[in-house]
Amino acid sequence: MQHTFGEIIKPTRLAQAVAAALALTSLYGQAAQSTADSSDAQTATLQAVTVTATRREESLQKVPVAVSVVDGEQLERDNRNSVSSIVQQIPSVNFRTGASNKDTSLFIRGVGTISTSPGVEPTVATVVDGVVYARPGQATLDLLDLERIEVLRGPQGTLFGKNASAGVLNVISKAPSAETHGYIDQSYYSGNESRTRFGIGGSLIPDTLKASLTTLFGSYDGNVDNKANGQEVNGYNRKGARGKLEFIPNDDVTLTVIADYMQSHDDAPNGVISSALTPAFAGALAPVRASSDNRDILSDYRSHVEDINKGLSAQLDWSLGDYTLTSITAWRGWNNTQWQDGDRLATISATFPGTEDKGDLDFNQYSQELRLASPKGQFLEYVGGLYYMHGKDDETYRRALVTTTRTDVGVADYSTTSDSYSVFGESTLNFTSAFRGIAGLRWTHDELEYDHRRLSTSATTVSGIQPATSSSGSVDEDGWSGRLGLQYDLTDNVMTYLTYSRGYKGPAYNVFFNMQPRDTDPLKPETSNTWELGVKATSWNDRLVTNVAVFHSDYDNYQANFFDTVAGQVVTRLINAGSVSTEGVEADLALQATQNLKLSGALAYTRARIDTFSCPAGAAASCNVDGKTLPFSPDWKSYVRADYSIPLENGLDIELGTDYNWQSEVQYDISQNPDTKQGAYGIWNASVALADYNQGWRVALLAKNLADKSYSPGLASGSGYIYRSVPRDDERYFGVQVRKDF
Q1: What is the pLDDT of residue 28?
Q2: Residue 477 · residue 507 · CB < 8 Å
């Protein structure tokens, strides 16, 4: 669907309401500033938020980008310890979970890529301490020693480049402190979940060398029962560490070296049956009863994942007069082995044969980035540079089909190699102190090749296993992305901007176990065009922050998975699905109501729709989806939070906190299966803590999902049934946290 600029910014009732709200906010702030009690206004102010959304540190209220910021310490206190858990706090973000972290995807403004193929890029980039993670599964485990997470909404292809056609998840860990400081944090939650974190850091050589080390040990039995053997599953066992060295030989040079290692064992089941579509399957599932809140499985082959994520990076920041040269050199390794029960039953019969899968993944990436940042305060300010990434993926996938009379086995070995080269730059032209122009451009050259070989004990097709085949291929593409915009300060405290962004995601191959000759052609690159109008306002003596963004995006050659049938099994097939669009309004608010009370919230209306769908030949599902919603994209999401502290005379503080997140109905299947819809739901959490920060300790009690609302972050269809993912907070649970600083 094509839109003119006039159509894109044509006022609607929603846009008019937003404009009215902004006007009221501005008037309210001006009135409040003139009437508020001066002593209270000076003491009760919001802490300024600094972000690196423009690849240099700047105030959140000054950057012409829609950014949501989540504090790392608050995430840890809320028992939100992974990328998947932040979606409750940021309405523009959604997450697809799976039995293996290899099967996960992030969505921003309704757009993401669902695929396990190593030959496709994610649509949302994950960047940790300046290093782009090439595969989404690398970033789904526990995040250690967080300073903050920035979510940059909309295409960010100019400065962040690879995988950033829908947005960026920018993760920043804490820098080592100059003074020696350590802590131990122990948490325990119902369901036998235990988490122990230990950290220490400080100066090794005064003014020259600082270091920090953080470790994690976590375990959880799970909240799903396997009726076949009495074991609890859907839990985890993790351990890891992150170390930082910051070397400052002189005032002009800083070298930061980061090493991290995380080992994880997860036993999430390969789907919990929520609906049996045939009486035969319902009978085979007994004594488990399929229901929307089912947390029981019947499995004879244990689904679990062994995962190791590790990396090493070195960042050099060198001041060349008023300019700053930055170099980031990084390597990351990822090893993942998954076992999955494909039939989701404990018995084998003529009607229901057993399917047992095992997949091994070995991935390595190497990247190098060079950036030059000009000094601030000039007419022309810019950041420009070069970027290179090399990725190599090797996988082996084995599937066994067990019947009452025989066992058939298929084994596929496949690999992908990718190289990406970029030249980029973005500039700000300060026409006046209040009026600025923005111009950025990035050229990307992608090279991608694959090799695939499958062997089978059967010369003919059997359920879930295609006959032997082999293929290979290569493709290279050039792509352009960029940004143009205007930024204007209405007052010292109200900034507005209008930007146009071009997004680009490189070519892809659908490389997977049952790859067939029809999958050997490369997918075309995905491109997007986005308009965004934003207002960022600070008022009431820096006690109230209100940020609003209105956006419209069109995506062409959208790379998406569509359901197909391969050898009698329903699988997802990666295709250029056609054209989609997403538009909406986002609002973030923070209010320091009093010195002790802080209120915050966020609201997103996202209308993500399929404009024109290109139906693949032989599709198993209906292609009549034009005008329907994109998967994992509710129209409405919201989040509200209140924090209240009560200082006591003896130096103690009582801290009360509560938050509530709500979303409207969401469809998880692009083919619009009526059985894969999650109805609207809300989750309410609360906490109370007692702390003595002078003595360095804090004890907190947490209550999660107080209303005991069962929901699912993912629903999918199998042969005769619907299965769901079960989240950690699928039912009410409680916990206690104890922290001591020293």
Answers
A1: 38
A2: yes
Judged against a pLDDT cut of 70, whether residue 29 lies above it is answered with no
DSSP letters for 572-617: EEEEE-EEEEEEEEEEEEEEE-SSSEEEEEEEEEEEEEEEEE-PPT
Return the domain boundaries, the chain: 5-174+271-291+327-741
- With CA atoms as reference, report the closest residue to 251 among 318, 326, 174, 176: 318
**Rounded to an integer, what distance in angstroms lies between the CA atom of residue 344 and that of residue 273?**
8
- CA–CA separation, 117 and 110 (whole Å): 21
Q: What is the DSSP letter of 674?
A: G
* Element spanning 206, H or E: none
Residues in contact with 731: Cβ distance below 8 Å, sequence separation at least 6, in sequence order: 223, 295, 705, 708, 710
What is the model's pLDDT at position 249?
Answer: 96
DSSP-derived 3-state class of residue 678: strand
Residue 580 has pLDDT above 80, yes or no: yes
Task: Just give the CATH number of 5-174+271-291+327-741.
Answer: 2.40.170.20
Residues 234-244 as b or e (16 or more Cβ within 10 Å = b): bbbebbbbbbb
- Across all residues in the chain, what is the average pLDDT? 90
> Smallest Cα–Cα separation from 643: which of 628, 632, 629, 653?
653
In this predicted model, what pLDDT tens digit does every residue of 439-480 receive, in sequence order?
999 999 999 999 999 999 999 989 889 999 999 999 999 999
Secondary structure (DSSP) of 373-427: EPPTTSSEEEEEEEEEEEEEEEEEEEEEEE-SS-EEEEEEEEEEEEEEEEEEEEE
Q: Answer yes or no: is pLDDT of 546 > 90.
A: yes
Q: How far apart are CA 394 and CA 403, in angstroms?
A: 30
CA distance 357 to 449: 25
User: b vs e for 430-459, b when ≥16 Cβ sit within 10 Å of the residue's Cβ?
Assistant: beeeeebebebbbebebbbbbbbebebebe
The rounded distance, in Å, linking the Cα atoms of 166 and 259 is 28
Asked if residue 559 lies in contact with residue 574, where contact means CB atoms within 8 angstroms, the answer is yes
CB atoms within 10 A of CB 228: 18
Residue 620 confidence class, pLDDT cut points 50, 70, 90: low
Q: What is the pLDDT of residue 553?
A: 96
501 pLDDT higher than 70: yes
